[in-house]
């Protein structure tokens, strides 16, 4: 999808590559010193580790992208992506409607920070909440 804001386009292209999954292409949208913090406060050194983490948590997972919101901070742009996750748990059960929110900082055409939140941990710990 084409976006008018260049930072939003970078994030959108990164998410597309991440969902392929193509961690090599996804990494091209990130700065060499990117700071990635995943659910539970897990620090990820690169897009490659994101793919490995997701492969251990899900048989497969994709994002149904919602809206993008952004704000200019002078030296960088903050981009928020929200929507839902859908896919399959390791035991073969499918899921959908799993809320996510990702926050990105984009500087000089590269993602320099990424923070990830979603409902997966809650759904794993208490599967009945996923049916609510």
Keywords:
132 residues; alpha+beta; 6-stranded mixed sheet; 6 strands; SnoaL-like
Sketch the major β-sheet: 6 strands, mixed
The level 1 CATH classification is Alpha Beta
Fold-level CATH name: Nuclear Transport Factor 2, Chain: A
- Shape category: globular
Radius of gyration: 15 Å
CATH architecture: Roll
SS field, number of helical segments: 4
Strand order of the largest sheet: 2-1-6-5-4-3
InterPro entries: NTF2-like_dom_sf, SnoaL-like
Pfam family, one: SnoaL_2
Domain SnoaL-like: 11-114
Protein name: SnoaL-like domain-containing protein
Can you offer a commentary on this structure?
By secondary structure, the chain is of the alpha+beta class. The chain has a single domain, classed as Roll (Nuclear Transport Factor 2, Chain: A). It is built from 4 helices and 6 strands, in the order ααββαββββα. It has a 6-stranded mixed beta sheet with strand order 2-1-6-5-4-3. The radius of gyration is 15 Å and the shape is globular. Residues 11-114 form the SnoaL-like domain. It comes from Pseudomonas segetis. This is SnoaL-like domain-containing protein.
Structure described in brief:
This protein is an alpha+beta fold and 132 residues long. Helices cover 27% and strands 45% of the residues.
SSE topology sketch:
Blueprint: H1 6-19, H2 23-27, E1 30-38, E2 42-44, H3 47-57, E3 60-72, E4 77-88, E5 94-107, E6 110-118, H4 120-125
Parallel strand pairs: 1-6
Antiparallel strand pairs: 1-2, 3-4, 4-5, 5-6
Domain SnoaL-like: 11-114
InterPro entries: NTF2-like_dom_sf (IPR032710), SnoaL-like (IPR037401)
Protein name: SnoaL-like domain-containing protein
């Amino acid at each position: 999808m084409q976006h008018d804001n260049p930072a939003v386009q970078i994030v959108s292209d990164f998410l597309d590559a991440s969902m392929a999954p193509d961690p090599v292409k996804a990494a091209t949208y990130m700065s060499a010193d990117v700071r990635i913090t995943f659910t539970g406060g897990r620090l990820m050194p690169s897009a490659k580790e994101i793919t490995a983490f997701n492969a251990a948590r899900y048989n497969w997972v994709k994002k149904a992208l919602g809206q993008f919101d952004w704000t200019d901070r002078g030296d960088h742009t903050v981009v928020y992506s929200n929507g839902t996750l859908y896919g399959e748990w390791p035991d073969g059960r499918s899921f959908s409607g799993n809320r996510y929110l990702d926050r990105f900082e984009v500087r000089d055409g590269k993602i320099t920070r990424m923070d990830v939140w979603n409902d997966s941990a809650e759904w794993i710990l208490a599967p009945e909440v996923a049916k609510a």
